Amino acid sequence: MEGPTVRFLGGVREIGGNKILIEDGPDRVLFDFGPSFSPRMEEYYVDYLQPRSTCPAKDLLEFDLLPRIPGLYSKEALGDSDLAYVPPEVSAIFVSHAHADHAGHLRLVDPEIPVYVGEGTRTLLDAISSSTTMKYGEHPWRVFQDATPVRVGRIEVVPYPVDHSIPFAYGFLIRTSGGTLAYTGDFRQHGPRAPDTHRFFEAVAREGVDGLIIEGTRAGPDPRRNLTEEGVRASVDRVLDGHRALALACTYPRDVDRLSTLHAAAVAADRSLVVSVRTAHLLTQVAPRLPPGTVPIPGRSAGIEVYARRKLKSYVWERPFLEQALPADEVSRDGRRYLLALDFQHFPELIDLRPETGSPYIHSMSEPFSEDDVSDHVMHNWLDHFGLVFHQMHASGHASGAELLELIRQTRARTVFPIHTEHPEAFETAGPTVRPPELGKAYPVGTTR
Q1: Scanning 112, 113, 291, 425, which has its CA 20 to 30 A from the CA of 400?
Q2: Which DSSP string corresponds to 397-429?
């Protein structure tokens, strides 16, 4: 096929796993590279049954859980796979944001391939890598600047910040020799950085793009309430106002906006937000990349404390927070003073905390598309055992189905490719420009053939 093309190697009729390859002559640029949250992965790998660390790409390729792209994977990741190692044939990878389904497979990539990220995303990846088992591998990291073009051979990429449930998320304008594409990454327009999303889509409309690659997590059946971050805050305020016991909350540990909301609500209720050591580490690392005063910093901001979970050993990155951390007996003894943000893996702490029957549990997460999830019935078993009252309040990290359709109309893109969705048919009402992509098929850029 002559001229530039775009191929979808993941994210097709599934949530997550975006892998978008744009080729223009000898130049090949990949956008995002992470695992899918599709059930297919769990057909082969679940819990402690995981790909071998000595050859993870080989083990995933065995079940077609990775695209067979020569010149992408490292020699170590391939091992003696039937996809033979060849030197890099991918020119660069651009990462839209630091969620696992967009960046989690970077560790498999040949270390000679440059990886382009925003400055804040680079900080987030470092914080995650240093405090979890998630690793991203060694790469020539390239940090791009907002709205500043980056040229990779014939391909020019312009990154624009967008609003999402993790900070430092981006969409991209992608200019090729045959036409221009826009890739949204994951986005919403009901969070604190909604103006960023609006500016990106205004730029897309001005550009007159040939193709719009748009995420559709919430397309199709969607029973979730479309709360804003302000709506979450108001709901948390009401719960805290009605209780004088220890209050508990759970949110995604990288949702910095939600942690800021919980902190503000706690302070307004004359409480302190208590976070895990890992969350304290992440907040401390990302705060310098965000406007002053927008992120609570343990040890420096009022109304935020760190929880001292009993462990057999501590890591170097944990130690700055441990001296002043609160043990379970102190949090339990004076529970009315605290809103404890308890990660799922820390639920066993409830055995020591023993909150009063009827204490509120604020579940501030909903999309079942995260490496941090536990099954719903397991969560409720714990809550029922301790007599905690469940409260659901969450602002999604993704635009609603109606918003997606309206944005498509505004951009007037010649072709629309819905990805990161289990319901691409929900986009059909946007008109004949919608083309649900087929996995692996090459589509020419600049024509609707």
Answers
A1: 291
A2: SS-BHHHHHHHHHHHT-SEEEEES-S-GGGGGG
